[in-house]
Amino acid sequence: MTEQATAAGKAFMYTIGCQMNVLDSELALASLQGDGLSVVDNVKDADVLLVNTCSVREKAEEKAYSWLGRMKLLKRENPDIVIGVLGCMAQKEGQLIFRRAPYVDIVAGTAHFTKIDDYVRQVRATGKRILAIGRDEEVETERRLKARETRHSAFVAVMRGCDHHCTYCVVPNTRGMETSRPLEEIVEECKILVGEGTQEITLLGQNIDSYGKRLQPRRRTLSELLYAVSDVPGLKRLRFITSHPSDLKPELFAAFRDLPNLMPYLHFPAQSGSNDVLKRMRRGYTFDRYMELVTAAREAVPDIGLAGDTIVGFCGETEEDFERTVELHEKTRYQNAYIFMYSERDYTPAKDQGLADDVPFEEKKRRVNYLIERQREWSLAENQKHVGKTIEVFGEGPSKRDAARQEGRSPQNQIVIVGSGRDLTGQFYRAEITSATEAALYGRLC
Ligand code: SAH
Ligand code: SF4
Ligand code: F3S
Question: In three state form, how does the secondary structure of 5-62 look?
Fold first, then answer.
């Protein structure tokens, strides 16, 4: 092969982790498409095999390694295959990945994924491995739009990284310190997306409430950003995730009232209901402060859908601590909650400071199952409040299980299922809600 070897071929991407990773995969694939590759959805058809990884829990890392183990077999059959590991685990593990999986060609961290086209070309030209995990570089934010599966909904990253030090969390290590994109650049990108047919935009940030804090020549706020993006002509729905209870400003609730296209949905994880545990997690708020925010949100936006994340079995969590968490869920009345067992991670303050991961696995499991079971009742009760109402739904297409049904999203981001043989992808329609489960609303087209 020569230095000019092109990267043309077929690429497959397996994405693990959060919405930021979903977006990053899209941006990485777009850079490969810019180099002439096509994107395929079956590994057997691909000669560039990529995994975008997550390190937030041990299970997420195991998933990546077990997938890599399977890809090794494909590479044995076809040594020209290029295998790349991107994302948070790439950033955190670096060289270790080559040691554990010597058949990997590229390890590219969280600031390097858009250069994957160069890396694939270099590997093909030289046969040498590439490790790109330097932190000095800014993430290339220019968006190449070709790889998008659907143009109806889009993610837009507005800030990356996190300045908090929640003791359980590896994200500040994998994503680095907070950096925000200029407001004008974000608005411009949103205009382009809407011009191409996007009707719903979700703004992404690991800690989105502190958007704009270090921007020059002047600091910007999430509120300013929401008003500016909301103004993009033709944008029907705007959302943002994820909020931190210490940074969330109650003034933000005014935006929900003022901006008709800002959807009534707030994802602001509490993580625990126990003040002792919150302190050990270094979250910076108490049970009461969290409940004040819940009350303020519901007063300002009565139909708001609240979502949260919770970790059970964190270092030193007692039965009483856990009961406070159950109480917090009961009082908050989350529409949906993501509940996890604590998973100890390297490079986190908890591990570095020697906080013992001392809740036995069986006990963590009991607590997580109990809370998930109770949360089902509360999610069901929240969803049932919509029964009898007629709501506007944004269509996402035929249900995977039953093509005679269409799936879509309510303003609160609930899944809505209606009977219809017509493909309603990307359309707005009204549905009368006739029943609900803890996971979805069911209705009929009006
Ligand atoms: N930036 C977001 C999300 C961070 S990771 C935020 O601050 O809300 C997503 C979720 O994973 C967290 O909200 C937390 O509930 C969970 N999580 C993070 N670290 C974890 C760990 N070590 N073990 C189990 N769950 C964890
Ligand atoms: Fe992790 Fe806390 Fe930052 Fe969220 S706010 S990414 S949980 S350190
Ligand atoms: Fe995972 Fe990284 Fe997202 S650790 S949750 S993929 S920021």
Answer: CCCCCEEEEEECCCHHHHHHHHHHHHHHHHCCCEECCCHHHCCEEEEEECCCCHHHHH
Pocket of ligand 1 (CB under 6 A): 56-57, 168-169, 171, 206-207, 242, 244, 269, 271, 309, 311, 340, 342-343, 345
Q: H helices within 301-418, ranges in order?
A: 319-332, 349-352, 361-384
> Class of 390-445 per CATH?
mainly beta
CATH class given for the domain over 297-385:
alpha beta
CATH topology of domain 3-132: Rossmann fold (3.40.50)
Give pTM, 2 decimals.
0.95
Domain residue spans of the chain: 3-132, 150-263, 297-385, 390-445
What is the per-residue pLDDT for 400?
Answer: 84
Ligand 3 centroid distance, CA of 57 (Å): 9
Cα dihedral 246, 315, 288, 258 sign: positive
Residues in the chain, pLDDT under 70: 1-7, 136-150
